[in-house]
């Protein structure tokens, strides 16, 4: 009996239906800040696509699984970000995300009413993540034609099934982190998630948390497919201001916790520390660590790896607190090859101009980029004023997809394929006019301004070193997020700053004032007309003068007959 | 003098005509343009429904087997009787139960069926002969000497809609048929109350309409345990593993659901739609610390602390994102290695044999101890395969309770056949359908009448055509459901009552009802006054002046004639 038992177990164990991995990548940044990137990946070998209802969940969170199957979602990417990623100081982020909330979803082609499903989906997600995603409606949703390709398997190109929306104003805080942590199999009870203490995570320069769901292949031949759920959390700690200028950090200092165990459900649980820029770092603990080299984002990096599933990682203290000091920054940070920024120019409250600057720092290679701009309808773009210039010359985009806005219905969508010449700045400008809103359409604090979401730049950037195209080599999880098909280039998506635009705002007691004023004017006009019509006019003898009347009073007192 | 008089008359005429224009054109225009749209509602029919007279009719067939009636009784036999039973529940609600009883003698085929060796086989072959429709019953009166029933059993209730009734001992051949029927009647009535509907069930189902008098505590507890009637339910099985470091749990939930739960749900399909899912939650703790009991060498949870167990767990369960139907939660808790074994104690400090408890209208929790797997030299983590038959047995019993399938103890002398693979006998389903139809009707009528009241009281609410349509479809479905109950078509009655409840809820919770609800009168007047006051005052004053002048002139004329 016992034997049969064990045999059964063996069978279930050799076919793991789902798999969970966790990792933390820490990279000391050139500016003295520390970048910590958590990534949790759940793989679930199942098939939603074929329409069979899956309802038994193990590691995959039930709430998300229900959402995927109810709304026939093929891919779902959602991110909540507080702060702006400073590419020029910090380099490329591992997982790019725009400030505020971003949501993009590919639906399966069996969905007939995509807009209705999208609306319902955003409402459900807003409940799951305690966020204002329910403010996503047709006025801030676009269907990009080229910028957002599915990241998982399946070569879908019909962008009718894609919806993309951003809420640049969304503020991310603890109430969004708690439901996000709840989706992890171990919660925040064990494993790397123990470090996620919200008062530390939100006391940072940059905070971004995301959920990515997509179908992936289980193996290189793609015989079985599975769902992949990636939960990522990226934080940049500003240790330079809090750390008294000393270049040192430790897990305890950053998170006010130390690690004692891996999540028992995780098949792999690792900490990667990027020591490329500072090979002379000194570690407090003399813990065995592995050094690996991996090519990430077009750069060869050296990581020292701590495997939490091994007991001797924790040493005799039974707790892991990495403490690292390093000397001042001599080494040069590899300057990101692609960088972009955006601002609004112009004065007054009638017209303006959006400038988008894109920098290609590659010394000799030019490469194409896809620029996506989604502008709300209340900035009326004059598309005929669109100019693209690089190095003082007109740079004609090879592909332009423009969808004009409709007032109160849909935003502008502008997508362009632009070739960036080597070592150059390319400037895209377009003029706009500010619309006057109806008085109920203004936000509660209209003088703060109105946000325009980041523009998205997607590009295949030529790599300085050969990229890894086989996935067998050990490397951090995050580097396998964007599919890499060739050695010579790697995919990069960068987001510009969101814009804050002032719109002409009225005085909000105006409607009542207008009502009162017009009523008064009408009443005065009507009153005199009424008087004219109804009064009877007759000639009256002029009144005796004042002096005469006084004289008469006096005369009466004296008993003299009054004046006539 | 004459010119001033003409002038005055012209002024008066002008004032009068302006007043006329304002009254004839202005006022109706203002009224029309500021009126809220209110579609027509079937108010009189709703008021009729507020006064609910429900009649439940059940068809009963009493079949006399050979040897129970004498030939001269047999001649009179094909007859029909109907019995009415009236109850007034409160001033607006009255109930009437009607049993249409048909008496006949058994056919030859039925005699053959009754000659089977056991009651269960007889039950099955009688079922094969003819299938009685939903809501009806067939009672076979078998002779005293029958071998079908055990010695002390008077009545046997089968798995379908049939029952076998032993004709009493004191019944000798030769009495009149009326006496025979009088003799059978009390037992048949008891049987009917068990197999179709009883007054307590139906009044419990009416609890939405009628405030129950605090009478029988037990029956109130019973009625509060079951979930409210709903067109669908979500059943969620959760395995709580607070200690994944020591226990690696495996449960074959898919197979277990297929074998144990699905047959019952298939049977219950006419009642509601069910969807099942399951999840495993790690590091999910109970809200209370179990106490160590030296006498049992085990940890115990006593009955008082059970109330505090659920809340912290519920935060982890997650709400159902995909539907708004009520969720039935079934939790299987495997205590961590340090708090194992864990037993639930009842109020008498006795261990509960099933080691499980349920929470009314929420779900059930079962504690599954795994310390027997540890063995002498235990190396954590331990792989544990959960015995799903044991777990599902408990959960199935809880599910029956929570769905309102009452397994009330039969009166002495009654034998209830064990329910088969589906876990639910046909008559149990009928019983549930009776009370669910009544409950749906009660809920829908209260929803509709309170909506009508609300709309009547608050004149600002806009009533869309859509809402009006939902209301009238709810009203028609309700009327149909009541009519079907009256004619004894239980299946249709349930169907219509479900439609009624859906339509009435849709109308009641329609967001468009809220739009103008908060448009207060003082703000309206703040906008009206600057326009209306300066316009109306001169008109009113000149009208007053004209009236007083007319009166003055009349008085002058009177004095002149005098």
UniProtKB/TrEMBL annotation, chain A:
It comes from the Eukaryota. It holds the Pfam family Gpi16. GO terms for biological process: attachment of GPI anchor to protein. GO terms for cellular component: GPI-anchor transamidase complex. PANTHER family: GPI TRANSAMIDASE COMPONENT PIG-T, GPI TRANSAMIDASE COMPONENT PIG-T-RELATED. This is Phosphatidylinositol glycan anchor biosynthesis, class T. The lineage of its organism: Eukaryota, Metazoa, Chordata, Craniata, Vertebrata. The gene is pigt.
